[in-house]
Amino acid sequence: MGLEHIESGDIHLRRSAPIEDETTFTKRFSEGDVLFGRRRAYLKKAAQATFSGICSGDITVLRAKSSLVPSLLPFIILNDKFFDWAITHSAGGLSPRVKFKDLANYQLLLPPIEEQSRLADLLWAIDEVVESELNVLERLEKDDLSYLKHFFYDDKSSLRVKLKNIVSIKKGKQPPILLPTGDGLPYCNAKYLRTGEVESVVPEEAWSKSIKINEYDILILWDGSNAGEMLLGKEGFLASTMCKLEIKNVNYLKEFVFHFLRFKSKDIKRATIGSAIPHVDTGMIENIEIPSLKLVDQEAIVDLFVSLKTNIELLNDKISNSKKLQKSLINQIF
Prior knowledge:
Elements: E1 27-29, E2 34-37, E3 46-48, E4 53-55, E5 59-62, H1 73-77, H2 80-88, H3 100-103, H4 113-152, E6 160-162, E7 167-171, E8 185-188, H5 190-195, E9 201-202, E10 212-213, E11 218-221, E12 230-232, E13 236-238, E14 242-247, H6 254-270, H7 282-286, E15 289-291, H8 295-333
Parallel strand pairs: 8-13
Antiparallel strand pairs: 1-4, 2-3, 2-5, 6-15, 7-14, 8-9, 10-13, 11-12, 11-14
């Protein structure tokens, strides 16, 4: 068991590796122990083991004593104050580590045993809600993938049209003026399109020399390590590392083409060219063949994906809120 098997901020140990004959790991842990990543504590890696095994020396194994209800220990460790303590007492340059003797000096107000049990039950109940929601989310994401395969798999018998007959490709460009803040519209780089975080704006005097995009335009990350990634547009101006696909055939819905390209994104990424800075192969994009369907059939497929996307977004919000509630309670209690 190494640090790579523990996810940041996740109380559950979801990954492991078989014990190899020549492993250098010697530290033992048992079911119920909490495995705390003592190296680079700022990564906030700590999880409760659901099995016994051996682990890396970069992991500190923590076990509850008689004065502490074992089921409460994971939440004490995942408290922000505990991590702050660990980070403050870490030593080292590129790979700081915290010693157990320093962790042992961490102090907190510990409720009576009976109260500990009630608190643990409450926190684990919230955790069960989160895990249930994560399972539903996983099923929805699998459904999304299944529908992509169902509607867009090339069965060699359906009627298809090359993408160059349906879309035109417009490359983004660097605006002559970019400001960190102020009046204007966002410069739509990949980070902004993924997260909504504005890094720079294009002032009005530079609009005429920039590429305008709108909500739900089809965009492809054209250059760089993630070349081929499909993104939906937001109002603003297109970054120089991206391209916009404009529909020029009225017999195709923009949303239908977008979902088809989502299905093809892995193929597009594999076909990128260039060694220093990979970029999308224009010829490959133009010659992809898309199913030729009636507009009514395209609309039905788009509606299905819209419904899935809505449910996934709602579920992500619920999961986020449940985690925030759990984290708030942990920080208040300890």
